């Protein structure tokens, strides 16, 4: 709901603030005062096309701003948050977002949503979700056949909604399974080739049977075998220096033992030598153990088989070949083999899978056909009801010979919403063929047709805000009263803003705004005034007779307001 609209330098409007709010707002004013600029301002605010010629003469830019109430959990509120915009607390009414747009005389513009600059497309998204405009040349809602089908489905109620949800879920499954069959058949040659490659790889890896970490272990073994003679010499020299068996030169064990014996001879003279003697004894034991380890190590070098290095290098070459093909690491080779086996099983079972999917698709298609037939039946029944109700409304809106038709055509193709092509048609006069809405009525008639449709759809397919421009064109008298009454009825569930020149329509408004000229300056300017009490009565009299001070006009205006109040209460 639009709480307030501010306009500056748009057309003849210099600066104006329009308090809107809930219910039915009527905008009136003399010809040329700028009533249509209100609709133009709303169009700009909702992302419509900018006309630089609408910038007020002498001004650098036109500017509009709107304070809009939205549900904080709605898609609109979420979109505002996505772009970094802010939502203010609107109390029990919801959250408030401020939208603004400026258009310069050179064609440049700026859009702000919730205090954050935003692309114009975001404003259009928000506008499409919040406001529907019905004007002489701009009937936006229900323009496409998809929108007409959606409106009919909403009118049909929960039964069709549940059936449509079931159909859509099944249709998605049917499409997915059909696509899978097509992929399996189309890619069969490539999948056979992939299976052969996987089978070869698995056989090759299985034949080598690599073990985790084996390449690192073999690298260590190869390094030892390659330097075997150096290892033998080094270990023999080390053992000779630690514990000599030849006796040709002192060894480490002998020197430590000699030091220990020297101290043992005098240790009883000084207790401080006792721990040193003990440490030398431990060192002698440790070094002797090292000598034993060196002897064992040397023995292992003597037991290496002839040709073992060749066997290790051959094994490393096998692992390197696998890593080059399926690596780069040995762990990657092992992982490849583990993942290849289930994939090969899947590829080898293609024929079975195609048979299973074909049977499943056939079953799903048969069920889709049944559900589509049920959807068609429900839509046709709902279409007849909608046609009758809208036609009845048209009779009261000065179109007694018009007939509204909901055409539900059954196609062969199963789409995401069934197989029906829904189109709203209008037969404006007897003896003519029903035609699409935008071809079967003039601008004023089309506005009335849309009003009739909106009144019927109000409870089933509600919209936050409706804007009607010249919905009463070419109408007067009792028919104009019926238009006002229906606009008031629509305002029970939605905000309704109407630009009108008829007192019979304006009488039903709960909020009356007048666009008035100011001729004092060199350039005509207009302002917007909220009317109440005597001011509203005078404006009603002006609309009726052209004379705001006429006693008969004032009396007629008071009578009309009273009639409107009684009709609104009654119906």
Automatic annotation (TrEMBL):
Entry-linked InterPro entries: DNA_recomb/repair_RecN, P-loop_NTPase, RecF/RecN/SMC_N
Residues in RecF/RecN/SMC N-terminal domain copies: 2-517
Pfam families: SMC_N
Coiled-coil boundaries: 354-385
Top-level taxon of the source organism: Bacteria
TM ranges: none
UniProt entry keywords in alphabetical sequence: ATP-binding, Coiled coil, DNA damage, DNA repair, Nucleotide-binding
Reported function: May be involved in recombinational repair of damaged DNA.
Family per record: Belongs to the RecN family.
Protein name listed in UniProt: DNA repair protein RecN
């Amino acid at each position: 709901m639009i709480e307030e609209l501010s306009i500056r330098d748009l057309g003849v409007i210099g600066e104006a603030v329009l308090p809107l709010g809930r219910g039915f707002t009527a905008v009136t004013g003399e010809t040329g005062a700028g009533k249509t600029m209100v609709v133009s301002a709303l169009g700009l605010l909702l992302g419509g096309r900018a006309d630089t010629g609408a910038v007020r003469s002498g001004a650098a830019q036109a500017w509009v701003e709107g304070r809009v109430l939205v549900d904080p959990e709605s898609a609109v509120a979420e979109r505002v948050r996505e772009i970094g915009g802010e939502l203010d607390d609107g109390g029990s009414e919801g959250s408030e977002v401020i939208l603004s747009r400026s258009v310069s005389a050179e064609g440049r513009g700026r859009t702000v949503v919730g205090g954050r600059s935003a692309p114009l497309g975001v404003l259009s998204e928000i506008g499409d979700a919040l406001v529907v405009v019905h004007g002489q040349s701009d009937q936006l809602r229900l323009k496409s056949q998809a929108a007409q089908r959606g409106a009919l489905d909403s009118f049909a109620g929960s039964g069709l909604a549940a059936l449509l949800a079931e159909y859509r879920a099944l249709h998605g499954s049917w499409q997915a399974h059909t696509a899978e069959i097509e992929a399996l058949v189309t890619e069969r040659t490539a999948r056979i080739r992939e299976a052969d490659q996987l089978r070869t790889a698995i056989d090759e890896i299985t034949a080598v049977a690599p073990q985790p970490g084996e390449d690192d272990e073999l690298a260590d073994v190869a390094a030892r075998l390659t330097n075997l003679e150096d290892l033998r010499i080094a270990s023999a020299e080390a053992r000779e220096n630690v514990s000599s068996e030849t006796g040709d030169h002192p060894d480490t064990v002998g020197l430590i033992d000699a030091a220990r014996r020297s101290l043992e001879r005098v240790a009883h003279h000084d207790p401080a030598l006792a721990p040193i003697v003990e440490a030398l004894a431990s060192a002698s034991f440790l070094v002797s153990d090292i000598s034993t380890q060196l002897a064992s190590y040397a023995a292992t070098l003597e037991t290496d088989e002839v040709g073992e290095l060749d066997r290790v290098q051959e094994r490393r070459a096998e692992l390197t070949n696998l890593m080059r093909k399926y690596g780069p690491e040995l762990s990657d080779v092992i992982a490849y083999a583990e993942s290849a086996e289930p994939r090969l099983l899947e590829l080898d079972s293609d024929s079975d899978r195609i048979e299973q999917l074909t049977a499943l698709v056939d079953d799903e298609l048969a069920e889709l056909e049944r559900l589509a037939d049920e959807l068609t039946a429900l839509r046709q029944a709902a279409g007849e009801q909608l046609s009758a109700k809208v036609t009845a409304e048209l009779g009261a809106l000065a179109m007694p010979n018009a007939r509204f038709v909901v055409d539900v055509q059954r196609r062969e193709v199963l789409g995401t919403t069934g197989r029906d092509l829904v189109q709203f048609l209008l037969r404006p006069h007897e003896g003519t063929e029903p035609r699409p809405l935008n071809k079967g009525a003039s601008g004023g008639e089309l506005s009335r047709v849309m009003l009739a449709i909106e009144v019927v759809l109000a409870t089933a397919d509600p919209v936050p805000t409706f804007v009607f421009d010249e919905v009463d064109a070419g109408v007067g008298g009792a028919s104009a009263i019926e238009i006002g009454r229906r606009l008031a009825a629509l305002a029970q569930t939605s905000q309704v803003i109407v630009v009108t020149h008829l007192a019979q329509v304006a009488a039903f408004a709960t909020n009356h705004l007048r666009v008035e000229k100011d001729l004092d300056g060199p350039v005509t300017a207009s302002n917007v005034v909220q009317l109440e009490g005597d001011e509203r009565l005078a404006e009603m009299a002006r609309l009726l007779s052209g004379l705001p001070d006429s006693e008969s006009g004032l009396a007629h205006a008071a009578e009309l307001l009273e009639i409107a109040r009684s009709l609104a209460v009654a119906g």
